[in-house]
Structures are given as structure tokens and as C-alpha cells.
Amino acid sequence: MKKIEAIVRKSKFMDVRKALHEADIDFLSWWDVKGQGDAKQGLIFRGIAYDVNAIDRIYLSFVVRDINVDKSIESILKAAYTGESGDGRIFVSEIDQAIRIRTGDKGDESLYNK
Hints:
This protein is α+β, with helices and mostly antiparallel strands. The protein has a single domain (2-110), classed as Alpha-Beta Plaits. The protein is 19% helix and 35% strand. It has helices at 13-22, 69-80; strands at 2-9, 29-35, 42-45, 48-51, 55-64, 88-94. The chain starts with a strand and ends in a 20-residue tail after the last strand. 18% of the residues are buried.
């Protein structure tokens, strides 16, 4: 089992969510987050300088069986891509154990994805 975490543009999140759904990945969590990338910029409006380095992003996280890792990553890559700096990142981590609280199912059986 793998945990996939991704940081994507807010404007691309619905596309990513739809692409994951089409790949049969329906159980995920997401959060609105702010972050700062490599680009440094400021904005001056009516003589007042504003820091616009904090960029709104969506952080999403889900756990999949090993057989679903590649299609999950490909779905995110295709849906989140704009070709511009700031498209985001994908992180993949190993999960040692998962347990469904309601049934006590362990390992792959505790996950919904097939």
C-alpha cells in the first residue's frame, strides 16, 4: 500500500478529483493550504506594497493498493498540468499497515479501491 499526497493549484483541483474518480479512486481527503514556491513577487497597489508570495493550493492525500499507484499518479499528472511553474508536487510513501475501524479488516482489504 502507498500513501499519495499531492499539492495542486486550486484552479485544477476539480479536474484532478474528476480524473481520480475516473481511475476508480474515490476516497481521498483534501485541505486548502497556502505555500510559497521558488517565485518571489510583490504587488504595489495605490502605493502600498503587498506580499503575494503565499499561494493558495489544495493538498490532497489518499492511500491506495500498490496496483493503483501508477494510474493514480498519471491521473494527477494529466489533470494538474499547465506547463507553468507552480503546477505542484506528488509524494508517494510506503504504508506499513491499514485497518478499517468498522470491520477490523487489515491491509489491502481495509481499502475501498480495487
